[in-house]
Amino acid sequence: MRPILTLRHYTRDLIVHSHDHAQLVFALSGALDFEVGGQGSQVVQQSFVVVPAGAHHACGSPQGSRCLVLDVPSDQWLAQSLGEHADASRRLLDTPGRLPLDPGQSQLVSWLASSPVDDPLIAQQGAVLLLASLNSAAPSQVAGKQLPYAALNAHIDQHAAYPLQVADLARLAGLSTARLHARFVSECGQTPMDYIRSRRLHIAVRLLRESALPIGEIASHVGYGSQSAFAAAVLREFGASPGKLRRAVDEH
């Protein structure tokens, strides 16, 4: 049986896959670049990312990141272990994206990370306690408080080949550029321009994986005027060159 809680170290090596179970990834140290459900974000301390069952996702950490990972065994496990909390957990686990942790939740994550999570009893009880604590906060965090990422992502995707201004995103969000900057740092742990750059590069990786377009043309598709600048940006973001990322797909 797969462990419920594990401590994992992420490196610059890009992980691109999906699995048939839901997963929560809690940052303990460092910054983990993550894309799930078409949303790119950076998971840092006091935040976590939700990966729904079957969701295609990619992650990597150029500077290294240590995380606590909760792999949900099954829907039946949720029902048996969480009882009346199970429906709230299902709603949380069905929504991809990054969410903040409050101080109490962060303390619980840190405590579990310092515990022997390879002990099945501690892992079982710790996972149940952690999920139950997240349920109490999830509705207010998921509903209404976050930036309109779907609209922002659609705008970035539509205009990825052209110069993008933070003011355009601020207008879509109904905020000033200063307020948008503060909200992005608070919710994503990165600036709006970092978010734009990361999303463009994730679009590029998808094109490398799923199309036969020349690398130079892909660079142009995501707003880079030169292939060398594009290659350098991909290397910084994912720890591998565009050619290596494409070959990795071909080898599979």
Set out the fold topology.
Blueprint: E1 5-10, E2 15-17, E3 23-30, E4 32-36, E5 39-43, E6 47-51, E7 57-60, E8 65-71, H1 75-82, H2 86-93, E9 97-100, H3 103-113, H4 120-142, H5 149-158, H6 166-173, H7 177-188, H8 192-210, H9 215-221, H10 227-238, H11 242-251
Antiparallel strand pairs: 1-8, 2-7, 3-6, 3-8, 4-5, 4-7, 6-9
How does this structure look, described?
With 252 residues, the protein is an alpha+beta fold. It folds into two domains: 5-142, Jelly Rolls, CATH 2.60.120.280; 149-251, Arc Repressor Mutant, subunit A (Orthogonal Bundle). It contains eleven helices and nine strands. It has helices spanning 75-82, 86-93, 103-113, 120-142, 149-158, 166-173, 177-188, 192-210, 215-221, 227-238, 242-251; strands spanning 5-10, 15-17, 23-30, 32-36, 39-43, 47-51, 57-60, 65-71, 97-100. The strands form two sheets. A five-stranded antiparallel β-sheet has the order 1-8-3-6-9, sandwiched between helices. Strand 4 and strand 5 form a beta hairpin. Helix 1 (75-82) packs antiparallel against helix 2 and helix 6 crosses helix 7. The chain is globular.
